[in-house]
Design brief:
Radius of gyration: 28 Å
Strand order of the largest sheet: 2-4-3
Structural class: mainly alpha
Number of helices: 19
Number of domains: 3
Oligomer: single chain
Helix content: 40-55%
Keywords: Membrane, Transmembrane, Transmembrane helix
Number of strands: 7
Distance between the termini: 109 Å
Shape: elongated
InterPro entries: DUF247_pln
Protein name: UPF0481 protein At3g47200
């Protein structure tokens, strides 16, 4: 019995060592750990297609395997020599590609290379068809049925569903395309443009392909053009950063919520008691999109680039109930395409479960600090209480006006009485 327990402990230690070794080797495609996954497992699981080894062979994803061959044929043609050229190009990169995955891949060399070629060519052809509509076959279900294309956009950005970007680059360079003016990065960003709840563009200085790990990393590097910088040591008097209140409480404390026309949804501003926030469109895929980016940032191990995690933390503070969602929607800060406000409030409440407070380099630290200072000022609290208790209805406003007039008349009467007494 004791031996069995020792074996269990040994296995646990070995699993932990694998994670350490994976990190040291520079792996960048991980399986989501259970603490994140258990809150909403579906957010990390592909709906219709498996890319790479982690979800390969799942019965519910088998329908797209034949479609990969169809795309391979349409991309390369029927000449077997072109297929052989792609295989020959990918084969020398096998060992490097295997090291990108945090877990050992139980595939033979031929199986692994075949998977890289099939999945890579499928992605390239899909990106090309999305850009060049004349390549689309009328019978292609990916473009004939909108829900399939939406699912493909979602599945191809999942953290567990990635190919090393250098594999895609090698295949793209190897395949003789009639028009290669559109680079692979531009094609990918164009493909994901419908999914991003904001603006994405290639950086002015370009993104060297060698610096991109996979498609999710590409999205992360190009989604935000925010000039917000991480702020260190913005703490409250207690030694911990004080979180801001929810949107209803901020409003009651006298802070005005306002939509701001910004291309980058991370560019939040606070000035003169007004919190200005860009509009966030929320649809069915938004939770999966944000969750996978947060997971990616957590595995990066660098909280200086945690812009998405910090943004989700910010929204998680603002949204505690469906009333908060309704209020933000009323101000145009949230565009609700999922239906009930309760769905969105539950989404953010669950999303911040595995985020342990603001990061050490929190992008919104200064805004949090200034918002809390504003809320703690006695005059601001007094005015907020006055508006909440007496200015929340027409009758309340009428009673305040009437009381003010009565006070003014009383004051005038007193002044006239004093002047009359002095004349006597």
């Amino acid at each position: 019995m004791q031996l069995g327990r020792s074996a269990d402990v040994s296995i646990t230690i070995q699993e932990k060592l694998k994670c350490v070794i994976a990190s040291e080797l520079g792996c960048n495609i991980f399986r989501i750990h259970s603490q994140l996954r258990k809150v909403n497992e579906k957010a990390y699981e592909p709906e219709i297609i498996a890319i790479g080894p982690y979800h390969r062979g799942k019965p519910d994803l088998s329908g797209m395997e034949e479609h990969k061959l169809v795309y391979l044929k349409s991309l390369l043609g029927e000449k077997i020599e072109k297929v052989a050229t792609c295989v020959a190009a990918v084969k020398p990169l096998e060992e490097k590609a295997r090291k990108c995955y945090a877990e050992p891949i139980a595939l033979s060399s031929d199986e692994f290379v075949e998977m890289m070629v099939l999945d890579g060519c499928f992605i390239i052809q899909l990106l090309l068809k999305f850009k060049q509509k004349d390549l689309i076959d009328k019978t292609d279900p990916a473009f004939r049925l909108e829900w399939i294309l939406n699912s493909l956009q979602r599945d191809l950005m999942l953290f567990e569903n990635q190919l090393p970007f250098f594999i895609l680059c090698k295949l793209y360079e190897t395949i003789e395309l009639p028009d290669q003016e559109s680079g692979l990065i531009d094609l990918a960003l164009n493909f994901f443009s419908d999914l991003l709840p904001g603006h994405a563009t290639a950086r002015e200085n370009g993104n060297p392909q060698d610096n991109i790990k996979h498609l999710l990393d590409l999205i992360h590097k190009n989604w935000s053009t925010s000039k917000l910088k991480p702020v260190k040591e913005m703490t409250s008097g207690t030694g911990d950063m004080a979180l801001i209140r929810c949107s209803m409480e901020l409003s009651e404390a006298g802070i005005k919520l306002e939509k701001i026309a910004q291309e980058d949804i991370f560019d939040i501003e606070f000035e003169n008691g007004t919190l200005r926030i860009p509009t966030l469109a929320i649809e069915e895929r938004t939770e999966s999109f944000l969750r996978n980016l947060v997971a990616y940032e957590q595995y990066c191990g660098d909280d200086r680039i945690n812009i998405v995690t910090d943004y989700v933390t910010f929204l998680g503070c603002l949204i505690k109930s469906e009333k908060d969602v309704t209020k933000l929607s009323h101000h145009g800060i949230i565009q609700n395409f999922v239906g009930e406000s309760e769905v969105i409030s539950e989404m953010f409440n669950k999303m911040i479960v595995c985020i342990v407070g603001p990061s050490r380099n929190f992008h919104y630290a200064e805004i949090f600090s200034r918002v809390n200072i504003h809320c703690d000022r006695r005059m601001n609290r007094w005015w907020a209480k006055l508006r909440r208790n007496y200015c929340n209805s027409p009758w309340g406003i009428i009673s305040i006006i009437a009381a003010s007039l009565l006070l003014l008349l009383t004051l005038l009467q007193t002044i006239f009485s004093i002047l009359s007494w002095k004349k006597q």
